[in-house]
Amino acid sequence: IVLLEDLAGATSAGQFEVHYQPTIDLSSGTTTGYEALLRWHHPTRGLVLPAEFIPLAEEGGHIVEIGRWVLVEAARQAAAWSAQAGRPIGMAVNLSPRQLADDDVVATVRAALDGSGLPARQLTLEVTEGVLMHDVDQVVGQLLALRALGVRIAIDDFGTGYSSLSYLRRLPADIVKIDRSFVQDLGSGGRSTTLVASIIELARSLNLDVVAEGVETPEQQAVLGRLACSHVQGYLFGRPQPADAQTPPGLGPV
Ligand code: G
Ligand code: G
Ligand code: MN
Ligand code: NA
Q1: Which domains does the chain have, with CATH numbers?
Q2: I need a surface site. Which of 3, 105, 117, 132 has the fewest CB within 10 A?
Q3: How far apart are CA 253 and CA 250, in angstroms?
């Protein structure tokens, strides 16, 4: 309850910080972009992770203002890294259901792009099955309008929902992010390897890019390489960190 009240002034008080986790092209080993992951430096509680405050911010509606700030910040950072690297650096930003249901979301995204100069194709918006708990036609309409700007849509935590295949049918998407629970079990002899192989194949036939999340071991990386997974994310390649703690993406191998 204290947290919910504290959320109201947190954005203007500068208590939020974006951490960035690299996304790697598995065949070349280069960083192609980053995922923006929000952190809250609470004045008395210290670091609060999104699992604790995003649900509250959803409920209280603060997520719209917070999300706007994240988009502006992340787009600006991606534009700066792209200039530094001399090549396009992508940025993925998580959008919660309430943000996507907001009438202003398209204008918000466009403003973040315009303000930063980041080309729209370098921005990915990540959504989960939760968005389908709102009016499906409205959500699909918003996603189509966002895509019309040129941004890409990723289905996050893919495979964990009750009807992941139906999201692929209903949501306009460009990327699937394989949930880390599948990746964790890779190579352990269970069914996960077959499931991940199937997701990658499915994505390929639908012309979608794939990002495997939560890669922590060289063994998992090797299996994903054999399965020709295009992109990976995980502690093995980099933890979410502040921008100034990152190796600038243009400067040397990752
Ligand atoms: O590292 P991690 O604890 O950062 O993230 C936990 C969850 O919080 C993830 O499911 C992620 O999608 C969500 N999350 C992180 N940053 C943001 C954000 O800026 N906006 C929204 N809506 N969700 C976020
Ligand atoms: O739900 P979403 O995919 O947006 O959130 C990503 C979450 O996964 C964040 O909380 C991030 O910190 C976490 N994460 C990223 N890489 C790894 C990893 O290799 N292992 C584990 N356990 N968590 C990870
Ligand atoms: Mn995500
Ligand atoms: Na995810």
Answers
A1: 2-173 (3.20.20.450), 182-237 (no CATH)
A2: 117
A3: 8
In order of 34, 85, 90, 152, 252, the CA distances from 80 in angstroms are: 13, 9, 11, 20, 17
pLDDT digits (tens, 9 = 90+) for 163-209: 788 888 889 999 999 999 999 999 888 899 999 999 999 999 999 99
CA gap 26, 233 in Å, rounded: 9
Amino acid at 155: I
ipTM over 0.95: yes
CB-ligand 1 contact for 66 (6 Å cutoff): no
- Residue nearest ligand 2's atom 24 by CA: 214
Q: Tokens 């990658």 sit at which residue?
A: 200
Q: CA 172, CA 155: separation in Å to the nearest integer?
A: 9
Phi, psi for residue 226 in degrees, rounded to 5: -60, -35
pTM of the model: 0.96
Residue 248 has φ and ψ, to the nearest 5°, of -55, 130
How many CB atoms are located within 10 Å of the residue 190 CB? 11
Instruction: Work out the widest C-alpha separation in the chain, in whole angstroms.
Output: 50
The bound ligand whose nearest atom lies closest to the alpha carbon of 154 is: 3
Measured from the CB, is residue 125 less than 6 Å from ligand 2?
A: no
Which pair of tokens denotes residue 79? 């534009």
